[in-house]
Design goal:
The protein has one domain: Alpha-Beta Complex (Nucleoside Triphosphate Pyrophosphohydrolase), CATH 3.90.79.10. It contains four helices and nine strands; from the N terminus they run βββββαββαβααβ. The strands form two sheets. Strands 5-1-7-6-9 form a five-stranded mixed sheet, with helices on one face. It is globular.
């Protein structure tokens, strides 16, 4: 099994969370995740999350605290992913998928990017799932989301 580190940015604007819609090109399965990607050799998790956020959304972000850590066992691709979610402290730009690299695998999967409210997430498949409930409870209470290890999931 291949091991991989993935870094993502958690970007909030007007009580909406920036998410990227993916669709499996063969099965059609759809899911939404914060922008992010695989850590490259010599890259920091912050550099990775910033670069991937720009490529997937066109936004330039400043990052703050790490708020979530999750392990995901990707059974289809035999990958054990360690995912690090970093809260953005600021951002510039408007979301768009025009910065995707056409020959990159992401271009085959990513279909849309936008800010979604908690209400708009209902009925959607969102990973990690904490973004559909506990994240909003923290945000709406005025507290910063606290660091949480989200455990290991398989899929």
């Amino acid at each position: 099994m291949e091991h991989r580190i993935r870094a993502s940015a958690i970007v909030v604007k007007d009580n909406r969370l920036l998410l990227v819609k993916h669709q499996h090109p063969v099965t059609g399965f759809e899911w939404w995740v914060p922008p992010g990607g695989r850590l490259e050799d010599g890259e920091t998790i912050y550099e990775c999350a910033k670069l991937e956020t720009y490529e997937e959304t066109g936004l330039t972000v400043e990052l703050g605290e790490i708020i979530y850590l999750r392990e995901f066992i990707d059974l289809e691709n035999a990958r054990h992913n360690l995912e690090i979610f970093i809260l953005a402290s600021a951002f510039e730009g408007e979301p768009a998928i025009t910065h995707l690299i056409p020959e990159d695998l992401d271009a085959a999967y990513i279909k849309e990017v936008r800010f979604l409210s908690q209400q708009e997430m209902k009925g959607l498949t969102v990973f990690p799932e904490i973004l559909k409930d506990v994240f909003w409870q923290d945000l709406n209470s005025g507290r910063k989301p606290k660091f949480k290890y989200l455990g290991q999931q398989k899929g």
